[in-house]
């Protein structure tokens, strides 16, 4: 991201964000509610247009008005706080929908791949279940698997544990940890500071749309340089 600005109704909610994410890196965005974390992820997924600056994916400027939005989104997986599974579809159909309809994968192949992902993440016996038959943690794991099914280059995870009861958070964090081990590149927002510290290669602190400070987790959590970062961490740790 190169000098990204985003305004809503004349108010700037992202103010010149510069951020580089390397392949296989996990980058966490932290900051108070309203600091611009979700907007930043939404800009990467082209759910929002940027007002200034540029975003590049694999060297291609995706914020170029001539960029093909569908092709960009096909390379990204995004998961939100609310799981957004299709309630009238089974787990298997939720997972295979995009590979089949957007990527043109044959049903048999899409289903084989979905079964593989479900077993990998401990949900092999849930393929035929409907979302309301699953716990919140299981639904969120299915939402992550659904995003993975299109084999994205980059995963964007926006507070994926915030809607979950504490005992269900662990199983979702475990799946993210495993994704990191498998080399997936991820940008995530989280309020789980312990997890953030544990999993991130880079931590970015946002305040009022400004990327105030970024660095490896040991530095951000033990020796933040900026007073605003220090104050935020004091309030949440
Ligand atoms: P965070 O995810 O860090 O809580 P957001 O990115 O959701 O922050 O929001 C940043 C700011 O942008 C907030 O002030 C929010 O009210 C504002 N905002 C986000 N989306 C919109 C929108 N679609 N229209 C107007 N304001 C918005
Ligand atoms: Mg948010």
UniProtKB/TrEMBL annotation:
One of its GO terms (cellular component) is plasma membrane. It is a peripheral membrane protein. GO terms for molecular function: ABC-type amino acid transporter activity; ATP binding; ATP hydrolysis activity. It holds the Pfam family ABC_tran. It is found in: Cell membrane. Residues 1-233 form the ABC transporter domain. Keywords: Amino-acid transport, ATP-binding, Cell membrane, Membrane, Nucleotide-binding, Transport. It comes from the Bacteria. Belongs to the ABC transporter superfamily. PANTHER family: AMINO ACID IMPORT ATP-BINDING PROTEIN (PTHR43166), GLUTAMATE_ASPARTATE IMPORT ATP-BINDING PROTEIN GLTL (PTHR43166:SF9). This is Peptide ABC transporter ATP-binding protein. It comes from [Actinomadura] parvosata subsp. kistnae.
